[in-house]
Every structure is written in structure tokens, then in C-alpha cells.
Amino acid sequence: MSRQANPKVIGAFVIGAVALIVAGILVFGSGRLFKDTQKCILFFEGSVKGLNIGGTVDFKGVRVGTVREIKVQLDRKDLSVKIPVIVEIEPDRIAQVHGDGRKVPKEIKKGTKKILTVFVERGLRAQLKMQSFVTGQLYIDLDFYPDRPARFVAEGIGYPEIPTIPSNLEALSKTFEKLPLEEIAGKLTSAIEGIERFINSPDLKGILSSSHQAVNDVRALLHSIDSEIKPLAVNLNGAVDDARKLIRNVDDQVKPISAGIQGTTTDARKVLTSVDRKVEPLLTNLDEAVRATRGAIAQADKTLAAVEDFTGERSAVRYELIQALKELSAAARSLRVMADTLERHPEALLKGKEKQGGK
Length: 359
Description:
Layout: H1 7-30, E1 38-44, E2 56-59, E3 62-70, E4 73-74, E5 81-89, H2 106-109, H3 112-121, E6 124-130, E7 138-144, H4 168-178, H5 181-200, H6 202-310, H7 316-344, H8 348-351
Parallel strand pairs: 2-7
Antiparallel strand pairs: 1-5, 2-3, 3-5, 4-5, 6-7
């Protein structure tokens, strides 16, 4: 007879086979054995609650790695606590290119530590950030902060270290820690007590009573003003209506006046046109008369010049005229004497002039 198989051995064999299959799926399915990865270490001083193994490591919003280990490190000297976090970076997720856009060959990419060193020198820093406000889950964000100094914690540990900077919540908590909370609380307490004393003081009650009276006075004043404004508004409306009527009457009277003015303007334009037509030849004749007058004046000037030459002191004609006038004057005297003689002795015309001593 054949020997019967042991069920326990068969069950163990089946369980081992299933375990190997699951392990193979987990290992080979994730592809980690065939990936080129680089482990780095980061040191955080604050709480990392919400950061879990398997958490994401992002660079500029793109996942480039995974959190692999989270530990707690205690320094015996000063009892300070640091939290080293080991992450696994996948360099293949960061495509390196030349300045002209061409990709860098794979053999050059193998110097990942050197590349990380260059990145750190140019300001690469790690920071914890909130991934979900609902679950409180954190992730590690890598980015360049060239203005933040690099702070290295450990050396010679076998992994390149990426410096960290405090998270926004951590920086805010440190700011709150630096605030003089006790002093601020004391001042707030004093302010609240002062407000309470002011509210319960009799002065405030008097102020409120005076304010209430002032409000009542203002209301009465507004009521009085309102009662006086209503008749004024009615009168104003009547005045506006009268003004409108007056404007319409003025408009009705102005229209015929305007028409008459327009007719007068038209007639005036016609008269001016007629006068302009008649004045134009008169102006022409006047211009000719002026030219003739100018010629006559010029001729008169010439005549006066000739007369002046004729009657000058050294003129021969003037001298002869003077001599002729003298002779005429002598002849006139002789005629006067003869006329006197004839008047006294008319007979002398017949007898002639008597000689002296004769009869």
C-alpha cells in the first residue's frame, strides 16, 4: 500500500506558496527592485504628527519620493530631541535637460548625490506641509529658498542631508511662544475692568439720560421744522407755478418782438446793401477829387514859389515896380496940385499960370 500524505505538510506547503506569491506581487509589482532611487535624511525639530511612512515627498507639487523611516533621536548631552526622517528620492522623476532643451544622458544622471549637493547649495530646503485639514495628514515639500540658510544636523551618516526649515504652523507657534502672553492677558483684564467700571459708573447713566433728552429735543425740533416746511413747500410750489406762467407769457411776447427784430434786421441789411452800392461810386469820385486837389495844391505851390521869386527883395521886377510906383506917386501929387489950382482959379485953364509980379 502507498503511504498516505501528511495533511499538515500539505497545508504548510500551500501557505508558504501563497506567502511567496503575495511577496512577489508586492515586491515585483511595485517595481522597486528595478528603480534607481536615492535615500536622503532630513531632521525635524518640531512635531511630525500626521507624517506617516509611505507619505509623499513633493517637489514643486510633483511627487518625487516617499517617506521610508521615521525615528526619534535623543541627544544625551543637552537632552534635545530631533526626528530624523529618511526619504527615498526617485531621480528619474526629475528630467534633467541641457540649456538647449536636450535631455541629459543616463550615465550623467548617476551622480545623484552631487546633483543634490548642488541643489542644496542653491537653496533646496524641505518643509512639512498640511496635505489634508480633515485628516491632519502631512507631507514633505521640497523647494528652493535661497534666502534661508542651510542648517545641517549630522554628518557622516551615509545619506545626503537635505536641510529643513520650520513649517508655517511651527513658525506661528514659535511666534506665539515669544509673545508676552501674561502681560497681554493682564492688560486685557485691566481694560475689561475699566470698561466694566465705566459702564457701571453714575456718570455714564447721566450721559445716557442727557443723550436721551437731547434725542427728544432733536425730535421735537425736527417735528417743528417739518410743520413749518410744509406751508413753505406749498408756497414754493405756487411760486414755481407763477414763474412758469410768467415765463410762458414772456415767451409769447418775445416771439413777435423777435420776429419784428428779425424783419428790422433784414431791412437794415437791405439799406446797408443799397448804401454800399451808392457809396462805392461816391468814394471813387471823392478819390478822384482828392487826386485833383493834390494836383492843384502842387500847382499852387509852384505858383507861390514863382511869385516869391518875382517879389523878392533882390528881384529886378520888384525894383522897377517900386520906381514906377514912385513916379506914379509924383504924378499923382502933380495932378492933385493942378486940381487944387484949377479949383481955386478955373480961369487958369484958359489963361495959363500967371507969372510973379505981372498983372
